[in-house]
Design brief:
With about 450 residues, the protein is α+β, with helices and mostly antiparallel strands. The protein is built from 13 helices and 24 strands. Among the domains are: about 220 residues, Bira Bifunctional Protein, Domain 2 (BirA Bifunctional Protein, domain 2, 2-Layer Sandwich), CATH 3.30.930; about 100 residues, Anticodon-binding domain (Rossmann fold). The two termini are about 30 Å apart.
Length: about 450
């Protein structure tokens, strides 16, 4: 059975993920994405963006600043409530998140029961922007992308008019001062989110909530290739202060099911919290009084003329967690007999970091290398993604390397190629090989990367 350690080892060995600040001993909760990690992450982002924006008429994109005014997080509720309960062991000085302790009456490390009272630990990363001398926090690195979407609601609506329902998506970095980062890339201090905020008319929210649950679950199954049996919906036991309803899509990791995406009915809390002139609107959620906003975040119905605060359906995916789940699902160890095994990432071809590798059978034969370079150049013109030239000369090792990084096909140029214009296509999942004319390679690859 695949373990997290298997994926960690593969990530380091094959250039997917490295420890952040590794040469100085590392920094917990931070990771650097290597040559194949950035490709896999990009392909996941592209698949999400394609499904959420390019294949719809009712969703627009946004890329908001990662540093934002402190007031934004004051009225969103984050500054006052976004924190973890923390205790400290008076004996060994270890600080622990109370909800993650094995036994909340004693220290996880030394076993001492001499603990401090739980206190709130601020998760947001505060900044002192500008020429301040006292270090007072006047801005934050965003802890999520949703709030900057809400504060841009009117800007997007005025510049690209839509009737309700319509949505705004963001994909980008978020930052949290986690006390105890854990689970490899599962819980980090710097991570990436892909979020949709879908604005709907009050009364239509429950229907839209169910529709988006079904849409997002189908994406995980059909686009990422994850079996339905490894996914489930898990309702929140306790709703957040903004939520009318909330469920998580959970993936079955080696140590059990855990969240990879949240689906939330946020009602009118968010736009209601940030809008100017709150008393003009019938806001159903309990929101903080806001006298500092400069914009009404309302929608005017073109048929009735009524102005109201829309409800919000949110889908929020952790891109790092998504990549982790995709790799775990694709990781396969196969027994080849005679004591030989191979490790292969059986990724959907569209997600694979490298779409094809072209391998001249001998590295010291100029004619083979020239023909291989010609094939690489032709395949790169297709715009399918990364096409690699492998010129190490060891065909077996090349195959194994590309199995491990998930390359769907390897194309071998051999001495016979120079005579008959044919190459060997070796398929990742089955290891089957077929001879094919060079002129047909582009068409064949396009049929595979679909």
């Amino acid at each position: 059975m695949v373990t997290i350690n298997d994926i960690v080892a593969l990530c380091k060995r094959r250039g997917f993920i490295f420890t952040g600040s590794e040469i100085y001993g590392g920094m917990a909760g931070t990771y650097d994405y290597g040559p194949y990690g950035v490709e896999l992450m990009k392909n996941i982002r592209d698949a999400w963006w394609r499904a959420m924006v390019y294949e719809r008429d009712d969703v627009e994109g946004l890329d908001a600043a990662q540093i934002s005014n402190r007031l934004m997080w004051k009225y969103s509720g984050h500054e006052g409530t976004f924190g973890d309960m923390m205790v400290e062991c008076k004996k060994c000085k270890l600080r622990m998140r109370q909800d993650k302790m094995a036994d909340q009456t004693k220290c996880d490390v030394c076993g001492s029961k001499d603990l401090t009272e739980p206190r709130v630990y601020q998760v947001m990363m505060g900044l002192s922007i500008g020429a301040t001398m006292d270090g007072e926090i006047n801005a934050y690195l965003r802890p999520e992308t949703a709030t900057t979407t809400f504060t841009n609601f009117k800007n997007v609506l005025d510049s690209v008019p839509h009737k309700l329902p319509f949505g705004i998506v963001q994909n980008g970095k978020a930052f949290r001062n986690e006390i105890s980062p854990r689970g490899f890339v599962f819980r980090m201090r710097e991570f990436e989110q892909a979020e949709l905020q879908y604005f709907v008319k009050p009364g239509d929210d429950e229907k839209q909530y169910e529709e988006w649950k079904a849409t997002r679950m189908a994406w995980w199954i059909n686009e990422l290739g994850i079996p339905a049996k490894k996914l489930r919906f898990q309702p929140h036991e306790k709703l957040a202060h903004y939520a009318k309803a909330a469920e998580d899509i959970e993936y079955e990791f080696p140590d059990g099911f855990d969240e990879v995406e949240g689906i939330h009915n946020r009602a009118d809390f968010d736009l209601g919290s940030h809008t100017k002139s709150q008393k003009e609107f019938d806001i159903k959620s309990t929101v903080p009084e806001n006298n500092e906003s400069t914009m009404k975040l309302s929608y005017s119905d073109p048929q009735t003329g009524e102005s109201f605060i829309p409800y919000v359906i949110e889908t929020a995916m952790g891109v790092n967690r998504c990549m982790f789940a995709v790799m775990l699902n694709a990781y396969t160890e196969e027994d080849l007999g005679d004591g030989k095994t191979r490790t292969v990432l059986k990724l959907k071809p569209r997600l694979a970091p490298v779409k094809a590798a072209v391998i001249p059978l001998a590295r010291n034969v100029p004619e083979l290398l020239n023909r291989a370079n010609e094939i690489v150049a032709d395949l790169r013109k297709l715009g399918l993604g990364r096409i690699e030239m492998e010129n190490s000369g060891n065909i077996g090792k090349n195959y194994r390397r590309h199995d491990e990084i998930g390359t769907p096909v390897c194309i071998t140029v051999d001495h016979q190629t120079l005579e008959d214009g044919m190459v060997t296509l070796r398929h990742r999942d089955t290891m089957e090989q077929e001879r094919i004319a060079i002129k047909d390679v582009s068409k064949k690859l396009k049929s595979i990367i679909k």
